[in-house]
Amino acid sequence: MLKKGNKLNSILTGSCPRCQEENMYVDSNPYHLSKLFKMQERCSHCNAKYMMEPSFFYGAMYVSYGVGIAFAVAAFVISYLFLGSNLKTAFIAIIGTLFVFYPVVIRLSRNIWINIFMHYDPKAVEIFKAEQKI
What we know:
There is one protein chain. 20% of the residues are buried. The chain has one domain (7-133). It is built from five helices and no strands. Helix 1 (7-13) runs antiparallel to helix 4. The protein has 134 residues and is mainly α. Helices cover 52% and strands 0% of the residues. The radius of gyration is 18 Å and the shape is elongated.
């Protein structure tokens, strides 16, 4: 399921979408809030530029809305349908879930957004290393 070359691997691990060799983020833990948005400028393995243009990740806000809704629906289903809580408790569970998983939602959204525009290339590392030797 999470084999190299699969977009889901890059999305869930936060690895480079082109070579999937290294983490795109300076700190892989999304709960270090001071480093939540800090990304490497380029991949050291394939030289992929993560910020393709200024304000590139503003588009991830649209993805973030959808991911947040998915987390909220999951929280509602678990609390209301499976645990049998009332609507007020289910609403509180939704708010708590969104608050706790906010950093994860942000990172997932960025990962999804960049994977829409950048695709896996198994030869990217070889090409970059060959270019460096020239």
